[in-house]
Amino acid sequence: MAGLxxxxxxxxxxxGRRAGELRKIQARMGVFSQADGSAYIxxxxxxALAVVYGPHEIRGSRARALPDRALVNCQYSSATxxxxxxxxxxxxxxxxxxxxxxxxxxxxxxILTQLHxxxxxxxxxxxxxxxxxxxxxCVNAATLAVLDAGIPMRDFVCACSAxxxxxxxxxxLSHVEEAAGGPQLALALLPASGQIALLEMDARLHEDxxxxxxxxxxxxxxxxxxxxxxxxxQHVREASILLxx
Amino acid sequence: MKxxxxxxxxxxxxxRAIEEKKRLDGRQTYDxxxxxxxxxxxxxxxxxxxxxxxxxxxxxxELVSPKLNRATEGILFFxxxxxxxxxxxxEPGRQSDLLVKxxxxxxxxxxxxxxxxxxxxxxxxGEKVWQIRVxxxxxxxxxxxxxxxxxxxxxxxxxxxxxxxxxQGDEITLYTPEExxxxxxxxxxxxxxxxxAFFQQG
Lengths: 245, 202
Hints:
Oligomer: heterodimer
Radius of gyration of chain A: 18 Å
Number of strands of chain B: 10
Largest sheet of chain A: 5 strands, mixed
Helix content of chain A: 25-40%
Number of helices of chain A: 4
Number of helices of chain B: 3
Distance between the termini of chain A: 57 Å
Shape of chain B: elongated
Strand order of the largest sheet of chain A: 1-2-3-5-4
Largest sheet of chain B: 6 strands, mixed
Strand content of chain B: 25-35%
Radius of gyration of chain B: 21 Å
Distance between the termini of chain B: 33 Å
Order of helices and strands of chain A: EEEEHEHEEHEEH
Structural class of chain A: alpha+beta
Number of strands of chain A: 9
């Protein structure tokens, strides 16, 4: 799109944010009563829903059971109405499979699977509206859902995307910024220890700039952590009020 | 056939050797195995051997109508197949997770990095563009499929020559290799995957 500058001279992005500013995040836990854990998150216009079942007995072939830890099964699905043009296949195509594998990789690093041998934890994520940063929204929603289910984790898993335009690192990319074709980084971080669960980058970026973009994404992930922590504490407070403490 | 699991003694031996910075075949921690690249008779056919891992790559092209939202760009299609001769664990129904991961990684490495100029593949905007198809077959699995596959893909693409075309008004003339020399693809840079494994937290 000619004439659409992602970063103006005054330092404002297309939607009026500053370079390191996140979009507005709203989250709710315990949205479904049927599931063991569920959560809904809105990051700007990106809306994701996560549902967790588990730990329960392995469904399907018993041969897949791991003798010393739990199996984490993740499925990603994006609704047909989530993108600008209607999607033909909500799940089963390669990108959805890859997202599922990446989510599994992320959560296998964070969930204490040694506590539940020979069992299975299912995480289902559904994207209702995709406006950039879908991986990050999915990871954040799934973290809240796993916490809602009471499954022990090493730490929160907070994710954020970052990009690089005109020598400045941008945090939390929207769809317009992603479609522009510049480099984009998706980072999933365990904030307390600073360990990276998943780091993925698309397109070309000079290695001299990598440090800066990584730092921007890490700072954004830590900001997300503050927000998610507040949401969890609020939810626990409400639940304890209902129980009559 | 299921993959034979690693025994506990083998695992302990490997980990202890890694602590002392030694590897099973005597390499240093950052050493690569020998890479040998050989070409076939056709343009776009190459075989890469990374140690004992072998990948065969073949590039072919076809004139098709372009995608609706990218009317002036050619189409790149990558396909990696793990054939059953590569390892006894590869069976027709069983490989989906690994296959998806490798294919997506290759697609991201070669398509999203824009190493091939897709605009140069356009013949008539909105009607005819070149579709370049890269088929990779894993012939022997001895570790590090993704590095060998990415090398095979980019080498095959560099080696490939597409037939020359000329457009006169509405007519498109496709020349055979005898009439006019085939044209190489315009490649900006050569992306290659390098894999690392971290043991004991670094």
